Amino acid sequence: SQTIHQWPATLVQPVGSPLSLECTVEGTSNPNLYWYRQAAGRGLQLLFYSVGIGQISSEVPQNLSASRPQDRQFILSSKKLLLSDSGFYLCAWSEQLTAEAFFGQGTRLTVV
Amino acid sequence: SQQGEEDPQALSIQEGENATMNCSYKTSINNLQWYRQNSGRGLVHLILIRSNEREKHSGRLRVTLDTSKKSSSLLITASRAADTASYFCATVGGYNKLIFGAGTRLAVHP
After folding, report:
1. Structure confidence by residue, pLDDT tens digits, A46-97
2. CB atoms inside a 10 Å sphere around CB B56
3. Among B76, B109, B106, B108, which residue's Cα sits nearest to residue B6?
4. I want to staple B43 with a disulfide (CB 3.0 to 4.6 A). Which of A67, A95, B18, B35 is the partner?
5. For residue B75, what pLDDT band results from cuts at 50, 70 and 90?
6. DSSP strand E in chain A: where?
7. Which residues of A touch B45 (CB under 8 A)?
8. Mean of the pLDDT values across residues B78-103?
9. Cα A69 from chain centre
10. How far apart are CA A6 and CA A91, in angstroms?
11. If you measure CA to CA, which chain A residue comes closest to B93?
């Protein structure tokens, strides 16, 4: 069966520090991969998605970047965090055809 | 930008009552999906309805889709306290991109 791992679960980082959140998927090949951000009590904002290794599409210009170094690994990064980067970050994957998405448990990032 | 918009933003009901949540979207879709999120957790897929379907059932869930009105509804029958969560609709466009609405926060009181 397929599983998705996202870590860490919580993170407190100072302004100006770098960020690296990692997400890995097991049990499937060539998944679509997504990074979403959710502000408190709000919906999900799509940040990045990838349909293959090395292919990244950005939805919203911002202080973040994403990379897909391996088929089932998706990384969200920042060189210098801003206060506005605080939020709940969710990684997800979907199969190419059905588009039903499976989510990780999320990372709560607090920038102080 | 958000594709789906849920209505109402919040809903408070008693156990045993039915809960209805609505979703409107703006562009053509391949399918529409509903997800549930418990507080502070990831989202869980509930049901998917394709653009050529009008109604779909799964246990106590009933989803309808009206593509002419660009709207969908999720009905939870005989609600339970464990149904307390946020519910999101999501539309699927190119590259299977899921675009989510702002969600409906459902509170079911014992």
Report:
1. 999 999 998 999 887 678 999 999 999 999 999 999 999 999 999 999 987 6
2. 15
3. B106
4. B35
5. very high
6. 3-7, 10-13, 19-26, 32-38, 44-52, 55-58, 65-70, 73-78, 87-94, 101-103, 107-111
7. 100-102
8. 89
9. 14
10. 7
11. A99
Q: Which residues of A touch B21 (CB under 8 A)?
A: none
Q: A38-42, B56-60, B103-107: which range is least confident on average?
A: A38-42
Tokens 């919040």 belong to which residue? B10
Q: What is the predicted pLDDT for the residue at B3?
A: 59
Q: Does the beta-carbon distance from B98 to A57 stay under 8 Å?
A: no
Please, which pLDDT band fits residue B2 given cuts at 50, 70 and 90? very low
B68 or B29: whose pLDDT is higher?
Answer: B68
Determine whether A9 is exposed, middle or buried from the number of CB atoms within 10 Å of its CB (0-12, 13-18, 19+).
exposed
Q: How many residues does chain B have?
A: 110
Residue A112 carries which DSSP code? -
**Tally of residues, chain A:** 112
- The Cα A17–Cα B34 span in angstroms is 36
Q: Which residues on adjacent β-strands are paired with residue A23?
A: A6, A74
The tokens describing A34, both together, are 């997504």
Do the Cβ atoms of A43 and B48 come within 8 Å?
A: no
- C-alpha R_g of chain A: 13
The answer to whether residue A56 neighbours chain B at the CB level (below 8 Å) is no
pLDDT at residue number B4: 65
